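ok trying again, last paste got cut off:
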Amino acid sequence: MPGERQNYGSAEISEESAAISEEVVSEIISRTFRSIPRSDQRRWGGIYVRGLLSVSGKKTMRAIADGAGGGVEQSLYQFITKSPWAAEPVRRELAGLLLRLQPRAWVVQPLVIAKVGEHSVGVERRWVSEFGRVVNCQRAVGVWLAADQASCPVEWRLELPESWTGDAALRRRASIPDGVRPCPPEQCAVDAVSEMARDWGIPHRPVVMDLRECDPYDICAVLLERRLPFAVRIDPAARGLALHAVRSGPRTGSRATGTAEVPAAQTGVPHPPGSAFALVSELSRQCMPVEWFDHSMGTLRATSVGATRVLLGRPASGVLRPAPADQQELLLMGAWQDSSRRTPSEYWLTNLPQSQLGTVFRTAMLGRRVERDQAEIGEGLGVRDFEGRSFRGWHHHMTMVSLAHAATVLSSVPHSETGPAVMRPTASREVRMRAA
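nice, full thing came through this time. structure:
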């Protein structure tokens, strides 16, 4: 019968997820679970991943256990919530598998998980601009490997407010490790990509982030200090932020910017904080049309993009104080998504070269690819569905969600030694229905 559930502890998955290749699922489980020492734990992990791919509706522990034939809920609960296996080696191995997608960016995608009650680890009432109101929720960030045709999360960080980290009883109840301290989402993301760049052994790609709701000064300074390429969306009128326009003359020297070389500044023309007109004039003078694929709309578009070199700093007593990292030159991009506007619709700050302006802008727009895949694939795989209360359990569940997401994506990617021919991933029937 259509949609009939079968025992996915075996090599079968339901007809509902027929687009998912069992060969790909088996490869992912075999490769990523090599760091998990016990065979029974690897077996429960395989059942859990196949359950995320096969179970309709909310991905609760009971629903996954029922789909596996019943009688295994306690074992699955133990595997996710209590077992001491480390999530980081599993995620690192997954990132290696996903290189066949030829990712062009590491996209930081925020995730707000609304909750009822106060027992889920990290939950707190806070203002969420996405909803326009105060929400009782968890806040997290995912780091996604993003290509033009597909993307997948590989790393997760859960924000823990001080109300949790500073309460010994709450720490014990949620089994929060001793070394975990309060960390704003953006700083959690920077720490995550820094560890990926240092320890994971995968090619570095530009970090794409939206920093409009935080102070970009400190985040950019850290990324520069750690020599990570980036393209971050900013609000140039943000309080406490100053952009110093720079005019470059003939090349007489250069400065390293992570992976790029840019001309050293010859003369500086400072603009007072809040002098948006001066910056917009600089951007307008150097506009060019950039063709790119809008993943949120599913269509090819052309956008006017301007760029000018700047130094990032903070105003102090009317004097510009440059950012750290050897006063690194950055590139400010302005994009006129709405041609009727006199000013750019969005602003991006990057340490990538101006000579590749079109490529840089298309890389920044991969954030829309990730937003679409989180909505069309991740939501249907239970990215917000974990009901446990432990810090370890949350990370284990999110790791399994990443594996299920990768199975969905890679099932549509022919793999050959000559290189992948990436196609648009086909989501399961439930995911397509949710998206509609």
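cool. The first strand starts at residue 105 and ends at 114. The mean pLDDT is 83.
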